[in-house]
Amino acid sequence: MRKALSIVLSFCFIISLFACMSGLPVYAVDNTPASTEVVEKASEETAEETVETPEKSNEKTFSATSPIKTKSTTAEVKNAATSGTCGTNLTWDYNTSTNTLTISGTGAMSSYSYSSYNGIYVTTAPWREYYNKMKTVVINSGVTSIGDYAFYYCTGLTSITIPDSVTSIGYRAFYGCTGLTSITIPDSVTSIGNSAFRGCTSLTSITIPDSVTSIGNSAFDGCTGLTSITIPDSVTSIGGSAFYGCTGLTSVTIGNSVTSIGNYAFNGCTGLTNIAIPDGVTSIGSHAFSDCSSLSDIIIPDSVTNLDSSSFNNTNWYNSQSKGLIYAGKVAYKYKGTCPANISIKDGTKIIANSAFSECTFLKSVTIPDSVTFIGFNAFYCCTDLTSVTIGDGVTSVGAGAFEYCTSLTSITIPDNVTSIGEHAFYGCSGLTIITIPDSVTNIGQYAFYNTTWYNIQSNGLVYAGKVAYKYKGECPTSITIKDGTKSIADYAFYGCTLLKNITIPDSVISIGENAFYGCTFLTNVSLPNGLETIGKVAFGCCSFLERITIPNSVTAIGQYVFYSCPHLKTIFYNGTQEDWDEIAIASNNDNLQNTELVFIEYIPGDTNGDEVITDQDAIYLLFNYYFPDKYPVDQPCDFNKDGEVTDQDAIYLLFHYYFPDKYPIE
Counting Cβ atoms within 10 Å, is residue 284 exposed (0-12), middle (13-18) or buried (19+)? Predict the structure, then answer.
């Protein structure tokens, strides 16, 4: 009966179509190229976030005993300039009699780089000729920042005055100033840049004011003369390698506001004997206190939810532990010695540290209690004999690579409270055939189930893991409709689907993962669903022909580079107001969001042709959209009959709504 009705109505449509053709407006898509080509590149700020460690640095490792070549500098210094500009409104003056540099004016100092000067890498600042002569720097009030590399390798510098007007100290600003013995940072400074004082080997004291909120990566790396440091309550994060190799440190006080301690933060601080981690800290990075050989007393609060099993390697605390499973506070930290066949983690444990049981090849079964909330990265990596895993109901997140290459594992049941499964979580579990994934899971990382039997036996097409659109397997078609009830689109779900032209996403989807549609070069027009909350970084990267996208006002967060390398994107339609848009947490490196025309729309459900009224013309327009979507675009969800896909049946439903709105409602 339904099929017969559909045929009759479609016939009526055709008659109506010819009857109305003369009055039907044509809605063409503007194909004018975007006025500004979107060019993305990694910002200096992003590059600075890289943790610098001697093992990974692309420069020569800093050494206090490195030879300084000064043989031929005399003649050059005689002819060097003694004054000039160093910012839009800043000037510098060098007194050759007192070897004093004075910087005056208002505003920010220019940022510089470094280059070879007589065989030594020094700052490119205009005073570079005095790098080993300069004794004193006086920065007058009015200067607001100290530029990147400003005094890089100024080895003669012994004293500097920083005024209250300065708010930031730039990247590598005082790197390698081996003569600097003390420095007072004024209360106006809010951030200390990456490697700002790295290699200042003579620095014995420094005062960090309450105004500072972050200490950058490698900020005091290699400051071997420092004996004590107090990190004020204003600081929320300690960067990676911040105090790496500060062998003279015997006392460290960490403020109560710190929430994260970066990788290698205090690595190699051999003079430290005790450390108290304050209650607010949630994350302690890899090798954070490794090689602190004298460290015997460690206090780890219950607040820590992310800890790496390398964090306290080669400390007296770790070396003195008996063989077996070591606990650090409420963290199952690391198994020391040969792992047995069966392990039950004690009740009350909150997290399993990263790599805690990595390569415990004799481990066959493990029981994780309900108290555990997080299974760390690579926690059971390459436990090749592991056949039985019982995960407690309290777990909410399974970290990246948690069970990677557990080749003997045949089945796994993810408990109902888990919301996130990290990338590579079960990668290479070649025997894994049965996976039970609850509806609570909304985020699945790249390759989470790659090269498992479960994935390998899936038919070509869109593979679902619970209520997550996990991965398109095989050659992607030109049009895909994600089934209704799906809660999220996984990271890399449609990565490289170059043939995909049309995607229909149901209103049930609340998140789109990282790189989800990366490289879908033929996508031109995308309408994101009502109810969507987050768009992951680079979600639509390299969608070369994407011209327009509709974003609902339900979105609360947009990741980095979300439209990276989308040169034809010229219009973003937003179903909300400017005030709503301003409330969205938009990550950095999204310049094209500012360079693309943003159109605020508040559509009328069912008004498919945009004339602000609902008539039978909207049903006809929707039918045209179904057959010719590029020529007849629609900027609103059109699954009016709620069957999970947009077809000609929705056009019929819309026509019924026009005549019988109470019986055929639309939202």
Answer: buried
Q: 295 with 266: CB under 8 angstroms?
A: no
What Rg, from alpha-carbon coordinates, does the chain have?
31
What does the pLDDT read at residue 618?
86
In 219-295, DSSP assigns E strands to 228-231, 237-238, 251-254, 260-261, 274-276, 283-284
State the Cα–Cα distance between residues 149 and 170, nearest whole angstrom.
7
Q: Per-residue pLDDT for 272 more than 80?
A: yes
* Residues 653, 641: Cα–Cα separation, whole Å: 6
CA distances 295 to 236, 303, 308, Å, are 24, 21, 17
Q: Are strands 461-465 and 468-473 parallel, antiparallel or unpaired?
A: antiparallel
Checking if the pLDDT of 49 tops 60, the result is no
Q: In the numeric block, which tokens belong to residue 628?
A: 């010719």
| pLDDT interval class at 291 (50, 70, 90) | very high
Q: CA–CA separation, 527 vs 633, rounded Å?
A: 10
Whether pTM exceeds 0.90:
no
Query: Is the Cα torsion angle 116, 120, 121, 123 positive or negative in sign?
Result: negative
What residues does 146 pair with on adjacent strands?
Answer: 169
Query: Between 648-659 and 616-627, two packed helices, what is the crossing angle to 10 degrees?
Result: 180
Torsion over CA: 15, 16, 19, 23 (sign) = negative
Cβ neighbors of 150 (< 8 A, separation 6 or more) are 109, 111, 112, 123, 125, 170, 173, 174
Number of Cβ within 10 Å of residue 1's Cβ equals 5
The predicted pLDDT at position 225 comes to 95
C-alpha 186, offset from chain centre: 31
Q: The tokens of 634 are what? A: 């629609």
Mean pLDDT, all residues of the chain: 87
H or E segment and range at residue 579 = helix 578-582
Q: Amino acid identity of 21?
A: M
